[in-house]
Structures are given as C-alpha cells and as structure tokens.
Amino acid sequence: MFPIAAGLVRSTGGRPSSWAATGRSGGVSRPPYDSLNLADYVGDRGDDVLTNRDRLATAVGSSGARTAVMDAVHGAQVATVSGPGVVAGVDGLVTQEPGLAIVALGADCVPLALVGDDGRTIGVAHCGWQGLVVDVVGSILSVLREHGSGVGFAVLGPAVCGTCYPVPPDRAREVSRQCSTVVSAAALTTCADGQPGIDVRKGVRARLVELGVEDRVISVAGGCTVEDPGLFSYRRDGVTGRQGVALCLADAAVDDLARMASS
Description:
It contains eight helices and 14 strands. With 263 residues, it is an alpha/beta fold. It has one domain: CNF1/YfiH-like putative cysteine hydrolases, CATH 3.60.140. The strands form three sheets. Strands 1-2-14-7-3-5 form a six-stranded mixed sheet, covered by helices on one side. The two termini are 31 Å apart. Residues 254-263 have low confidence and may be disordered.
C-alpha cells in the first residue's frame, strides 16, 4: 500500500496542502531497503532512492526535482527553504513555496508534518527522544509564527511505541528534567520487563497541544515501527531504510482548484 495515508487540507482564502505518509512498500529498492526507502545515507543505491523520492513527491503533487529533504541531526534547528535539495544540520523545514515538496524521514523517530492555518505556510520535522529534550517541536512552531501562521492540521507519522522502546534510566530522567510535566507524563512509560520506555509520538502530541495546537487537528498515520513489518525500524532491523512524511502547498489556489474540478 502506497502511501499508507494521505490527504488534502483546504484553507479558507489560501492554498490547499497535500500530505502523504509512507511505509516500506511502493518503491524500487532492494533488500534490506525494500522497497520505498527514502534515505540516501543508509547504503541503498542512489538511483533507487531518487526514484522512491520522486514517487512520494508525485503523491503530493510535486516531483523529485522539486523536493527538499533534511539531513537530520537530532537537534532543534529549523530552516526556511524556497528550493529543492538536501538541507544539512537541521531537524525542521518550513516553506511558503507552492509546488515544493518538503520531507521528513524516520525509522523509529517521529516524522511530523504541520499545515499552517494561513493557507501559505507548511513545515515538517524529525523528532526522537533527543528532539523532545531540545524541543524541536517548539522550534518549528516558533518559525511558523514568525511567518504569521499557526497550525491548522498536523500529522504524526509512523514511530516506535513506548513499550517497544526501553531506555536506560538516565535517559528517562533527562526527558523528565528537560521536558514539561505534561510532556513527560505523556512520553514516559514502563516496559514489560520493568525498564522505563519513551513514547516519542505521544510526547510530540502533548507538546503540540501544550503550545496551543488543538488536539482535534492532530492525526496519527501508521503504527509502531517495531511491531509492524510493513514499516522500517532501525531498532528491529539495524540495517534498513527510512519512511517519512511529505507535504506540499498546491500550485493552484483553492478557488482555482474548485474551478478546475467543476469544468
């Protein structure tokens, strides 16, 4: 199934945004990257990665030649982009460029897509447990606000669940120290063997709500990466690919799309 989830988000007076979330299927990569690996840094064939990225971009109304992908570093830096390419050293991308697909990747961490409520600003981010600690969610919402936008819709892509992500006690304590009580309570759990666990996706959702995003506009796409063999998981497989979320502002405005649909 490709994509595993997708949708069109309309905005009053602005442009609609198309989004898509992926799993393993629908691409051309060979094992162990089979088949829709989107990462060019895991050992996969470069041409196959480009083909897969083009398929994802097409699903949101763009193309591989009009796609921006971040080279995430588990930090809180966010870049505003207006053209395609790989953006190094950031864990968030924001754009107001119609037709430009922006992509966040993950293979246990959370790929996150944010559609602005202004009809002209969108963003994607990558968040693992370190992203919770350094608050990449807060950083990308801050950049959206700098562009005059709030969040009208959010998608949290596939990620490891808390019970499948046991961590050392000091890591759980760091989340507790650095994150708010609300975020810590949502993210921290106890695994079956008694070890602490971190559910990053629940933490991301709690942080979005804490920052004023309405819970009703937040969607979850895909299940636990460790439990679902249809998803890439670094924790489960070691050598593997990356899935992701893509987001794109439509080239045409809402009124133009409506006229096209009725003609």
